[in-house]
Amino acid sequence: MKSMELSQLTIHELNHKLNRKEISVSDVVRDVLKVIERKESELNAYISLFEEKALERALELEKHMPQTLPPLYGIPLGIKDNIVTKDMETTCGSRILLGYKPPYDATAVRRILDNGGIVIGKTNMDEFAMGSTGEYSYFGPTRNPVNTDYVPGGSSSGSAAAVASGEAIAALGSDTGGSVRLPAAFCGVVGFKPTYGTVSRYGLIAFASSLDQIGFLTKDVTDAAILYSVVGGFDPMDSTSWEYQVPDWREMLSGFDKLDFRVRIGVPEEFMVEEGVAKSILTRTEAFLKEAEKNGHKVVPVKLPHSRYAIETYYLIAMSEASSNLSRYDGVRYGYRAEGEEITDLDTMYRKTRTEGFGIEVKRRILVGTFALSSGYYEAYYETATKVRRLIKMDFEEVFKEVDVIVGPTSPMLPFKLGEKLSDPISIYLTDIFTVLANLTGIPAISLPNGVDSTLGLPIGLQVMGRPFDDPFLLKTAKNFEQILGN
Ligand code: GLN
Fold first, then answer.
1. What is the mean pLDDT of the chain?
2. How far apart are alpha carbons 106 and 109 in whole angstroms?
3. Would you say residue 176 lies in a domain?
């Protein structure tokens, strides 16, 4: 196999070749490292890279090859930099965590390593996963591999860019309001956010704990199912973990190509509006629905009336929880600490550390969140948001009585140019209008590549949402849709 090609393959394709001994683990790692060498200076997909360690681990894995290789055996993966890795710097894309080397591995990372996976590096991200463009990283923006003038989407920007370019075979991301699905859509890869509680959050550095979920960026649905089956399932270290054993990936997908596999697809009328959704995105979504009908699926118009409050509800809850979660960064326990003669007492040290350590978007959110939680305002803001969240959840419960999945665009807009929206944070928040719903309700959702905009050549994402705790059915449906889309 020619160099530069292995990096373009999926996990299951590489597993097949490794099992047949057509290639070695070192071949795969070296190939990915070559792509990194060629593209990383432009893409900036990684905050830290572990080239040597990865090569050493490849040799180690080659020495102890089991008879049949588990699917992740010898696969180089990117890990978003808000997921802790033992003795490897973990920064959350923030200055305030500079130099922080966690003493333990996140459960997700542990399970990957126990299955023979290789951590090739920690991927770039919006600071503390707050953002939709990748431009809020202390380590500089990541660029979209499809067209480097454009943003890759965020906040799992580096993970999506790495997978789309071949700088990783697949990657872990985190999704609080769309941070796996949006960059997947912008970079033309698959992004899967499982049901809240089915993937351990132990070792995922908290942004908004009731919304945060680890998810996967992959080249196809099969790889998403593989990662979910390895990483997902009950973990006693996470008190919100659901007692659940994820089935084997083959079992989850089996029957996806049967002719009698037909689903009822709900299409919310609120998603398919000309005002606010780019024309090419609407056209591509409609084209998919037509094809799906031709393939025997049923398309049903549905209503999610409270979804119009989704953005306000999401941002109030996310910022409130963030303001509380981020209070721990005080310069005492980990990471960056401000220095200088003027620091004569603890209060000044806290203040200077937080002033210098956090970037603009994080500060904005701490301020808004603290306000929304403060006495006298709590009922009007945070509490109201939690009530609306409940109404949104009830909308979904109603709709899922009639349909099996809900389909629409992942984002109302195409990728935009770097810097284009930086002065207008509200317009950036609107990129999340379709994705935050799955976090507010806890349901699983996946973004699939749905072609490109014909003028700009930029990728478009199709979002498929499923019933809570039925991720295997969602993945199987997504695999079926992937075929319809011709991916
Ligand atoms: N863009 C959203 C935000 O800025 C979502 C972020 C995320 O999912 N981590 O909050």
1. 96
2. 5
3. yes
**pLDDT at residue number 282:** 97
- Which residue from 104, 58, 108 is spatially nearest to 85, judged by alpha carbons? 104
Domain assignment present for 387: no
How many other CB atoms are there within 10 angstroms of residue 317's CB atom?
26
Domain presence at residue 459: no
Give the pLDDT of residue 334. 83
- Collect all residues with Cβ–Cβ distance below 8 Å to 244 and sequence separation of at least 6: 197, 198, 232, 233, 234, 469
Residue pair 106/241 in contact by the 8 Å Cβ criterion: no
Which tens digit of pLDDT belongs to each residue from 465-487?
999 999 999 999 999 999 999 98
Catalytic residues, by residue number, are 80, 155, 179
| Beta-sheet pairing, 118-123 with 46-49 | antiparallel
Centre of ligand 1 from the C-alpha of residue 182, in Å: 9
Same domain for 333 and 198: no
For residue range 176-233, what is the model confidence (pLDDT) as tens digits? 999 999 999 999 999 999 999 999 999 999 999 999 999 999 999 999 999 999 999 9
Model pLDDT, residue 1: 47
Average pLDDT over residues 46-72: 97
CA-based nearest residue to 117, from 245, 216, 5: 216
Whether 336 and 249 map to the same domain: the answer is no
Separation of CA 154 and ligand 1 centre (Å): 7
User: Which domain, by its residues, includes 190?
Assistant: 6-253
Ligand 1 atom 4, closest CA = 131
Ligand 1 pocket test target in 92, 123, 179, 209 with most atoms within 8 Å of CB:
179
In the reported structure, the alpha carbon of residue 429 is separated from the centroid of ligand 1 by a whole-number distance in angstroms of 8
Please identify, among 349, 379, 409, the residue that sits at the C-terminal boundary of a domain: 379
Our mutation pick for probing the ligand 1 site, out of 132, 159, 410, counting the most ligand atoms within 8 A of Cβ, is 132
pTM of the model: 0.97
Q: Ligand 1 — pocket residues by CB below 6 A?
A: 129-132, 155, 174-179, 207, 318, 432
